[in-house]
Amino acid sequence: MTDSEGPDQGSSARSTGLAALRGDCARMVPHWVAPPATAPRPVPPSRIHRIVVPPGSARLLDAMSDYGD
User: Fold this and answer.
1) Is it the case that residue 21 has pLDDT exceeding 60?
2) C-alpha–C-alpha distance, residues 67 and 69, integer Å
């Protein structure tokens, strides 16, 4: 997590712990830039086909208050 280049100076010289980890992460933030998330475009109903729900699954969902009632 800390600088691994150069000769090993022993564990007493290495900074460890949460503060060191947070500092390492803060220095890496510019390397982790992600593009902004885009919302998925809606799919027209004409493109949705061949969806098959087994009868047992349909009955199970129909019996659930969140979906069927």
Assistant:
1) yes
2) 6
